[in-house]
């Protein structure tokens, strides 16, 4: 596509953003109603490489608060507009620059990470992903796929901050970033089967499903899926790899400045119940007789109101609120006793430059 007007990105002179859009055809060779044949996209030039950006694709819906999300089902010939980022999942109020540290956030939430910054009003229906696909001479060969999990202690952050354009262009890979539920919306738990928790991890598993089901149509090699993450995103990537929901689909792990063995990376079941009771008490639900009544009370609380209490009662730098229980984390303890759990997964671990600055 020839562009009549290209803007130069002030952060990187090699990066030219095409301000015009077109419907871009994606080869669809699968009978799968998760695959969309054509999407409206953005074209970005980085050096001599064109990168297609597909932004704000909704991958799942949250039917009820504190329940697992369900994948979006689309018709094979459906066209969606994917030219703008989706809304944020609600972070802690104090993480939104320009706000007083309490909810509701007005007029917007601004989240910064290095040179990257996004502004948005957080919403409860926030499960969106972004895809960055390089158009290179090697298009005949299927490209490796990178699923990137953002950090933020499971309490803050968004995949929207991470522009995958440069990595896609330089690495000749397909990059996928995304949002998942945070804080109590993603990790509130009773520590047992009544409220399993780890919903943010289940959201991540749905992204892996989406990549595996659609990767081939995007020009990707679904036998070469790498899941990477930074800070809390690193142990999340590891948890996904050892979870039964992986089903052997992850080929490589990239763990940056985070480990599943850190004390802050997970929460014991008994501590999870203490957190639940604190949240229930702060929201006027603590005087209910049964657990189910308390949970229903929290489900009926206004989204902004419950978030304000969350800022005061569910924020801690000591853990990410991933709970070691339930179906998702059933193999966490056994993995230390099995020699072949990750035998076919390449793992690269390390620390990022200037960590902590």
From TrEMBL:
Segments for region (Disordered): 1-35
Biased composition range(s): Basic and acidic residues: 8-33
Domain Carboxylesterase type B: 44-356
SUPFAM superfamilies: alpha/beta-Hydrolases (SSF53474)
Protein family (similarity comment): Belongs to the type-B carboxylesterase/lipase family.
Stated name of the protein: Carboxylesterase type B domain-containing protein
Protein's organism: Rotaria sordida
């Amino acid at each position: 596509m020839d562009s009549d007007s290209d803007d130069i990105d002030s952060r990187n002179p090699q990066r030219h953003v095409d301000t015009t859009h077109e419907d871009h055809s994606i080869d669809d060779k699968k009978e799968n109603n998760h695959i969309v044949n054509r999407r409206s996209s953005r074209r970005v030039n980085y050096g001599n490489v064109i990168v297609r950006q597909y932004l704000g694709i909704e991958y799942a819906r949250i039917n009820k608060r504190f329940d697992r999300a369900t994948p979006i089902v689309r018709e094979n010939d459906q066209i969606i507009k994917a030219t703008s980022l989706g809304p944020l999942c609600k972070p802690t109020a104090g993480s939104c620059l320009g706000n007083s540290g309490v909810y509701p956030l007005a007029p917007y939430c601004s989240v910064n990470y290095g040179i990257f910054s996004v502004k948005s009003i957080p919403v409860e229906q926030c499960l969106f992903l972004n895809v960055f696909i390089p158009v290179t001479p090697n298009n005949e060969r299927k490209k490796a796929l990178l699923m990137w999990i953002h950090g933020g202690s499971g309490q803050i952050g968004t995949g929207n901050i991470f522009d995958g354009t440069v990595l896609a262009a330089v690495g000749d890979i397909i990059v996928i970033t995304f949002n998942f539920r945070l804080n109590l919306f993603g990790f509130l738990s009773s520590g047992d089967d009544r409220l399993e928790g780890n919903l943010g991890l289940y959201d991540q598993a749905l992204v892996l499903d989406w990549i595996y089901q659609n990767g081939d149509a995007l020009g990707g090699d679904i036998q070469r899926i790498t899941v990477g993450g930074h800070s809390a995103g690193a142990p999340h990537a590891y948890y996904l790899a050892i979870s039964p929901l992986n089903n052997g689909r992850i080929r490589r792990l990239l763990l940056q400045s985070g480990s599943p063995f850190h004390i802050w990376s997970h929460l014991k079941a008994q501590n999870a119940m203490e957190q639940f009771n604190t949240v229930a008490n702060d929201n006027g639900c603590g005087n209910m007789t049964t657990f189910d009544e308390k949970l229903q009370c929290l489900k009926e609380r206004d989204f902004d109101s419950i978030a304000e209490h969350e800022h005061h009662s569910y924020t801690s730098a000591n853990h990410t609120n991933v709970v070691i229980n339930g179906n998702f984390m059933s193999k966490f303890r056994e993995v230390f006793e099995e020699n072949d759990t990750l035998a076919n997964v390449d793992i690269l671990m390390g620390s990022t430059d200037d960590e902590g600055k």
